[in-house]
Amino acid sequence: MKPPEKNEVKHFRGNFSLFPVSMAVLGLSFLVFMFLAPLGTLIYSSLNPLYADPAVPQRLYDFLSSGDFEAFFAELQVYAGNPMPAAFQDEVLLDALRVSLITSGASSIICMCFGLPLAYVLARCDFPGRHMFKTLVELPMVLPPVVAGISLILLLGPNTPLGSFLEQVGWELVFTWRGIILAQTFVASPFFIRSAIMSFEEVPVSLELAARTLGASPLKVFRSVTLPLSARGLVAGWAMMWARAMGEFGATIMVSSNVPGQSYTLTTAIYWKFWAGGVYPSIAAAIMLLAVSFAVLLTVRFLVER
């Protein structure tokens, strides 16, 4: 091919010189205002309690004006130091962190055990209704989480045929920690399955057929060819699935009993603590969730991009 003339190169650069700059400005602006600013404000609020509760000076003034010195000194004692360390040591939040880690881990294992075969079938098998099943699997990604909650209640609630039967045999699901796992699995599994389908579809079928012609069994082909070549997509899908399960709120709050230490997750702790007037415990719970999620996602990204 004939190389472009010098004047043609200059003309090309002149027409598109503003494009990368414009894209960078728009992209970085979105990053700053939609991600860095809100999360930075959250972290700053944990370091500066007066920012999170700006009404403190007014309350102190009102106590002094009314002569309520006992309330004044009690309020002053709280803010003499930083109230956030005490919030991070809240037993309810620590129990909620434990419940969140256990339930999100359990739902991730369930998604891996059952979602991986389903993704393989939808990626490799051609059968009538395949695209409809793909759409059905992805449907929870666009549905409000409360739809998952009410669906599970109508299916497994104590007043339903299946729910009452399970309760009689000692397997009560809804309004327990088991309900949290079911809700997280419902809303999070599509993220893994969709990523797994795309990863399996990117593996050339010719490589699998070549392994079969060399005498490898279908299981060995899957284990030694398909899985290694799709590993990065599977790990990325698992990370998205776990993060979605860890941060699930709408379905969780409907199917759990919200008992601290038993079925109280970090997301529900943020909600209940905030509306109960505990702004600092809610900030502490949000910081915990942010730190754990960031650490896990960063680790996964490091492993995937090695």
Give a verbal description of the structure.
There is one protein chain. With 306 residues, the protein is mainly α. It has 2 domains: 6-80, no CATH class; 85-304, MetI-like (MetI-like fold, Orthogonal Bundle). It has 16 helices and no strands. It has helices spanning 6-16, 18-47, 49-52, 56-66, 69-80, 84-88, 91-124, 130-138, 145-156, 161-168, 177-202, 205-213, 218-246, 250-255, 266-275, 279-304. The mean pLDDT is 84.
Question: How is this structure best summarized?
Answer:
Helix 2 packs across helix 16 (279-304) and helix 15 packs antiparallel against helix 16 (279-304). The mean pLDDT is 84. This protein has 306 residues and is mostly helical.
CATH class annotation of the largest domain: Mainly Alpha
The total count of helices amounts to: 16
For the sheet with most strands, the description reads:
none
Spans of at least 5 consecutive residues whose pLDDT stays below 50 are none
Number of strands: 0
SSE class = mainly alpha
Indicate the proportion of strand residues.
under 5%
Helicity, as a percent range: over 70%
What is the overall silhouette? globular
Gyration radius, rounded: 26 Å
For the record, give the distance between the C-alpha atoms at the N and C termini, rounded to a whole number. Answer: 37 Å
CATH superfamily of the largest domain: MetI-like
Number of domains: 2
Instruction: Give the integer mean of the pLDDT values.
Output: 84
